[in-house]
Amino acid sequence: MNLIKKKFNHDSFQLFLVCLIPFGLVFSRFVADFCLVLVCLMFIIKNSKKKIFIFIKDPFVKIFLIFWLIVSLRSLFSEDVLLSFKSSFFYIRFMLFALAVKFLFNIDKRYLYYFFYSISFCLVVLVFDGLIQFIFKKNILGYPAFLMHGGDSYRLSGFFKDEFIIGSFISRILPFYLGIYMYGRHVKAINNKDNYIFILLLLSSLLVLLSGERVAVFYISLTVILGIIFINFYNYKIYLKIFVIAILFISVLTLHDGTRKRIIDHTFGQIGIINDKSEATSNNELYVFSIHHHSHIIAANAIFKENILFGAGLKMFRVACDKRHKKNFFSCTTHPHNTIMQFLSETGLVGTLFYVISLIYVLKYLFLNIRYSLKNVQNNLNKSRMFNLLALFIALMPILPSGNFFNNWISIVSFFPVGFYLLSISKYNEH
């Protein structure tokens, strides 16, 4: 009896830590990463004796470990060994976290129920606070909305204070959230919440649109399209939902000058299609996304050419760029702001091969699960896999501007769906 109680307390504490991570991502990255590390350590302690060799047989683990060894060894020969090695060596915690999530939520379906409502509360608070910041120009903690150059539009940050990532955060976590919901429906841990989910989709898409984060608008559009189709596909009200979403987007872009200028006019100005006085464009040149992104890509390509096979090492874009490839004021930053260029410049062709394999896998099974879900609208397990794969596709997006792929908060948000996807595969194989 005592052993059972200890096991329950161990697993319950892990669940508590996992439930804290979304809140930590919003209010304290240190807390989020600290909880993640504790979850990994508890997972290792619990499974080190019995299942370590079973884990190594998993294809995901094999591929990740090979990639991890390569980038860690490369860091030992980088220009700043400590900076690079810290990032590459400890990156293994995200693999362990994905495995811990997989096994934790396979223990008791009630865990999924608690986690779903925990992350629901986090999203609801974040969305309403962001809308409050838009309306009153400050959020409930007093953090102000940022007035853009020209004074015609605002950028929203919500609880992220001076970081304009509220749209990116919501657009990345929302498909994962829908994956949790559909998996919960599959194992009968969560009752039908389709109407609540639709309202949350509606408000989340509105906030992302108002946030002015253009890439996030594209991401959440993908989530909304798949969400309104597959969450309640067989309900005739789907057409009404599509109509409501379309009217919402068109109305905001038409009636709100600041959002229209930020999403449409400012984008064309950055590319160089139209003249935008707020942009440092010259000679009527066309740019890849903007002069800033264009300069980052040129610098990343130059760094890649210096070491084609293995790149400069993780976190070395900033070092190599500052030393040798600062062609203009915009060239150098902490990362290239494009995932595939980051892999090429920091991990070379060898590291990029793992990225490409992962991207092909995600795209293949994303389309397969979309097709399966169209044929069998009652299969919530396929839908769960589809939404988690969509979250992974967003994390791996090769074309659009992106955050630092190896950044802590982006990695946490990216490896959450990996854990649930691995869990859904194991459940799929049981049937």
Explained architecture:
- There is one protein chain.
- This protein is an all-alpha fold and 431 residues long.
- 71% of the residues lie in helices and 1% in strands.
- The chain has a domain at 2-57 and 91-274 and 377-430.
- The protein has 17 helices and 2 strands.
- It has a two-stranded antiparallel sheet.
- Strand 1 (146-147) and strand 2 (154-155) form a beta hairpin.
- It is globular.
- The chain has helices at 2-27, 29-47, 52-56, 59-75, 81-89, 92-104, 109-136, 166-186, 194-211, 214-230, 238-255, 257-271, 291-306, 317-324, 339-375, 380-396, 408-430; strands at 146-147, 154-155.
What is the topological layout?
Layout: H1 2-27, H2 29-47, H3 52-56, H4 59-75, H5 81-89, H6 92-104, H7 109-136, E1 146-147, E2 154-155, H8 166-186, H9 194-211, H10 214-230, H11 238-255, H12 257-271, H13 291-306, H14 317-324, H15 339-375, H16 380-396, H17 408-430
Antiparallel strand pairs: 1-2
Helix pairs in contact: 1-2, 1-7, 2-6, 4-5, 4-15, 6-17, 7-8, 7-9, 8-9, 8-10, 8-16, 8-17, 9-10, 9-11, 10-11, 10-16, 11-12, 13-15, 15-16, 16-17
